[in-house]
Amino acid sequence: MNFLSPIWLLALIPVAALAVGYVVVQRRRRRYAVRFASLPMLDKVVPRRPGWRRHVPATLVLLALTSLGLAVGRPELTLRVPYDRATVVVAIDVSGSMSATDVPPNRLEAAKAAATAFVDELPDTVNVGVVSFAGASAVLTAPTTDHAQAQAQIAALDLGSGGTAIGEAVFSSVEQVQRMADEVDGDEVPARVVLLSDGENTSGRSPATAAAAALDATVPVSTIAYGTPEGTIPGSGSPVPIDEEALRQLAEATGGTAYSADSGEELREVYADIGSSIGWRTEQREVTPYLAALGLLVAAVAGALSLRWFSRLI
Questions:
Q1: Is residue 225 classed as helix, strand or coil in its secondary structure?
Q2: Using an 8 Å Cβ cutoff, are 306 and 61 in contact?
Q3: What does the alpha-carbon distance between residue 305 and residue 66 come to, in Å, rounded to a whole number?
């Protein structure tokens, strides 16, 4: 918590002095009561004592004054709020190497489950698009706030053929982001491409060319290298190790972040980390009215309890 007018927090000094004074008075009262505790008629004269209830109104008043004292300092909090307009394009590799079972049940199925959960955690205001790529790229869902539609497309992904067109996937994703920007009259729209792959680019334009286009469009591409060095294609046994370095270079060239994951659990953690940064922003908000209202409410409760228990306002 920060304060826009911290000098006014000096108003809390009298409140602290009042709290100390209350404690001192109560201790003196206790010593006075002990001095006359042997009087035989004391219990008959005062058969019922208020006990802990007599401290409640005073405690609430002190809390109310503390809340009002903090309010005059104009406090502000750092809050996490969703972007009003943001675009995230999820690009998923569906080439044959994604059938490798080094990540059970296989790379593609684990990737689909993690990507679906990722979309589910994004704020409702974020537009989500889905791109798949093997030998070529395909836009399955244009960016939309209908997250259920995006999740359905991810769940329906199946293995493709013809190589791995990472560069083409980046081009397709960037085009979708630019179309969203055009729809809002060219206003700046926070955007990110999240690309998951396990192999090197073997088809279409190069990742370097695609990175230049993404950088020119100011669209960061975060990459996830997914799989293990021991991965093989079922049946043929052909090795399909991940190309982590190429994906790292793509991310760094566009201002994105490079991740790697070799298990379904790690992939979910990666997606959670990405989601916490691209769907939300932090901003400072003044909370003076809320603290002032809280102080007034607590003071009113203190008065009501005092009237109910002791027939006096405080």
A1: strand
A2: no
A3: 19
A 10 A CB-CB count for 253 gives 17
What is the model's pLDDT at position 199? 77
CB atoms within 10 A of CB 121: 13
CA distance 34 to 23: 17
For the segment(s) 84-278, the CATH number from 1.10.10.60, 3.40.50.410, 2.30.30.90, 1.10.10.10 is 3.40.50.410
- pTM for the complete prediction? 0.70
User: Domain segments of the chain: what residues?
Assistant: 2-78+285-310, 84-278
What are the start-end ranges of the E strands in the chain? 2-3, 75-82, 86-93, 126-133, 137-144, 191-197, 221-226, 258-261, 280-286
Residue pair 159/99 in contact by the 8 Å Cβ criterion? yes
Helix (DSSP H) and strand (DSSP E) numbers for the chain: 10, 9
Lowest mean pLDDT among 28-32, 65-69, 193-197: 28-32
Residue 118, classed as helix, strand or coil, is helix
Strand order in the sheet with 75-82: 2-3, 75-82, 280-286
Of the pLDDT bands very low, low, confident and very high (cuts 50, 70, 90), residue 61 is very high
